[in-house]
């Protein structure tokens, strides 16, 4: 199976948002894929595209995943410090998971980061994602763990360059 990775086109933003929300729901990170404040944020790809790079993975010309890449801080950065790039909101359609799209998206972000350190946050329940990050060389940075809202604990992972 060949996976194409490229910048998302505006016409694909709605699809990317639905895929990312569905992936977060399937992974236990959302109560519902179509309701609630964070689900709304995940689906609002157009707003993210104004401040970050939206990258998609396609199989057979169909979008199967997306990620928000923040190369140098700004309003879309949650935890990136000076000189760091940040990966946010990675999601692959549940029926396309396990075939390399998530890995391809992560590798693209890493390549775009160049020599900069790469950081990301992930929920504690996302154990499959943790394995992907660790396989790509990311290590836990417990001193940078944080909670955007009470009851949502996020783990920080860092890839040193």
TrEMBL record:
<keyword id="KW-0012">Acyltransferase</keyword>
<dbReference type="InterPro" id="IPR016181">
    <property type="entry name" value="Acyl_CoA_acyltransferase"/>
</dbReference>
<feature type="domain" description="N-acetyltransferase">
    <location>
        <begin position="3"/>
        <end position="159"/>
    </location>
</feature>
<dbReference type="InterPro" id="IPR000182">
    <property type="entry name" value="GNAT_dom"/>
</dbReference>
<protein>
    <submittedName>
        <fullName>GNAT family N-acetyltransferase</fullName>
    </submittedName>
</protein>
<dbReference type="InterPro" id="IPR050832">
    <property type="entry name" value="Bact_Acetyltransf"/>
</dbReference>
<keyword id="KW-0808">Transferase</keyword>
<dbReference type="Pfam" id="PF00583">
    <property type="entry name" value="Acetyltransf_1"/>
</dbReference>
